[in-house]
Design brief:
The chain has 232 residues and is of the alpha/beta class. The protein has one domain (6-222): TIM Barrel (Alpha-Beta Barrel). The protein contains seven helices and seven strands. It has a seven-stranded mixed beta sheet.
Length: 232
């Protein structure tokens, strides 16, 4: 594998006591968001992007890691001061749902840390009862990229491969809350495209609250311009 499974970065927002896990092969994702600098073709692999610059390492994996490989990567990188393991990577980690499910169980068995996943939240389009299964496996927190308040806005911003993505995303948020997973929703701000009419902060906050997200758990993320600007 070319890329890194376990990595870390430190910013004023994200402290250095978090170990990040990358379980994604080929930068795979179920969405193709217009604001995302993720490499989206083979010719873009290895080109500079903001995510790998922050990680200080390539996150390109030709094959998805096994549970054993992920656990070995954690053991090699984890520090006594770490209090969180976050499954993120570059793409959509829940495409490897079965691996994530088993890995969460093993992490909780081996380490006294908080567990987190960052996801686009469309997993209900692929698996049944994902929120219940993640809660049972030991997931503490989930951060879901919501980004829109309507199907029309979502489809234009995120270009999902599943036509029912926005509807299933909303159901997944409600399911996670029901399962007592600390559920956060995020929106990208300051990204502009003339042809896409976007909702404002107040409208987005109101929508997130209507889904059951606590106000303190609504995240507004500043658009990060890619180092190499794909299609902008």
């Amino acid at each position: 594998m070319k890329g890194t499974i376990a990595y870390r970065f430190e910013t004023p927002t994200y402290p250095g006591n978090i170990l990040y896990l990358n379980l994604i092969s080929n930068y795979s994702c179920t969405n193709s968001c217009v604001f995302c600098g993720r490499p989206k073709s083979r010719k873009e692999i290895g080109q500079p992007n903001i995510y790998e610059k922050k990680a200080g390492s390539s996150l390109y994996l030709e094959k998805k890691p096994t549970v054993k490989q992920a656990l070995n990567a954690i053991a090699a990188k984890i520090k006594p001061t770490d209090n969180e393991i976050a499954i993120v990577g570059l793409g959509e980690p829940l495409l490897n749902f079965l691996t994530v499910e088993k890995l969460l169980t093993e992490i909780k068995r081996k380490y006294s840390v908080k567990t987190r996943i960052d996801t686009n939240g469309t997993i209900r389009c692929i698996f049944k009862n994902p929120a219940q299964r993640l809660a049972k496996a030991g997931l503490d927190e989930i951060r879901i990229s919501l980004n829109a308040v309507s199907k029309k806005e979502y489809d234009k911003l995120c270009n999902p491969i599943f036509p029912q993505a926005f509807e299933e995303l909303q159901k997944f948020i409600k399911d996670c809350i029901k399962e007592s997973i600390e559920t956060k929703a995020s929106f990208v701000e300051d990204f502009k495209r003339k042809e896409i009419k976007q909702s404002g902060r107040k409208e987005r906050e109101k929508f997130a609250l209507s889904l059951g997200i606590k106000k303190k758990n609504i995240i507004f993320r500043k658009f990060m311009k890619p180092i190499k600007v794909w299609g902008f």
